[in-house]
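S.,

As promised, the magnesium ion run. Input:
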Amino acid sequence: METRIIRINEHNPEPELIMEGARYIKKGKLVAFPTETVYGLGANGLNEEAVRKIFAAKGRPQDNPLILHISKISEIKPLVKSIPKEAEILMEEFWPGPLTIIFERSSLVPDVITAGIDTVAIRMPNHPVALELIEASGVPIAAPSANTSGKPSPTLAEHVIKDLYGKIDMIIDGGATGVGLESTVLDLTGDVPMILRPGGITLEAIKYFIPNVEMDLSIISSSDKIIPKSPGQKYRHYAPNADMIVFTGNIENIVEAIRNKAKEYVDSGKSVGIMATDETKNRYDEGIVISIGSRRNKGTIAHNLFNALRQFDELGVDIILSEGVETGSIGTAIMNRLKKSSGGNIIEV
Ligand code: AMP
Ligand code: MG
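Predicted complex:
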């Protein structure tokens, strides 16, 4: 398949380029586009056949539902059975933004979007290209992250090209995404508002408006026995080619443990990647060190994390030794992604 790559001005998208993307969406084609979280792989969310192509291009398991993206709050009405009071408050506060809300679905939403379940996930992205593309298409756009299933999510158009070139119709290159991690997924259909995936909007921020919100246990637990409520959370995700170990605890202990482990691996002839931070990057003398950002500004770590994992893939290292960060605020989302990337290989030191 021919993949067209279009470079767009991310702050002031050229209307003719948006129209071109919308034309593709309306024709049932696949268009990757930037959002403020990561790049999305978009298709007309009301066109079952188009949505099926997303699963095929990504190699995504059929039982993992997709998020519908809208450009105005009024567009959710036909897609849901009802809008809870909490949703109204949160949409007002956080949309457009990295918060996905789960509603009871209406019959307009195709089964293929929801993987057959009774609920539908919806969000309004905070990115000019995404918003204008949705508006010009005139339909909700189904868009999971634009990566091969299981790989780290794309934060640059280059990542999308690497994974999906030749498998999708268009890639709209709008430069680097902002947050760098996916949206928070919040379920409002149960008795207690529940975060199923931590992301760009933190538990603390939601709690301010909805005090009884809780975090799904499987997100914070290291046990494999707790089954996640969100289908997508049960899969290995964000995984680099190399094996990966994440070290958590006191930062001095982390540095010491990584130094020792790195030496062990290097001595046995392995090539080692170290995912460090600005504050610690000079403390390692073995392996290839990449700083993913500053411990004092965890937003920078979120922004760089997936790119760093992909860089280690490019470098072809055998093992990645990664520093962990403290949970709380965006740290919870970062640790959730590190847990998944490493397949739960976390050592507390
Ligand atoms: P992605 O867009 O690929 O980054 O992932 C979307 C996430 O939202 C996955 O973890 C899905 O399992 C989750 N999701 C989408 N729709 C629903 C739903 N109706 N109920 C629970 N989780 C959902
Ligand atoms: Mg994804």
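The two ends are 49 Å apart (CA to CA). Residues 144-145, 153 surround magnesium ion (ligand 2) (CB under 6 Å).

- D.
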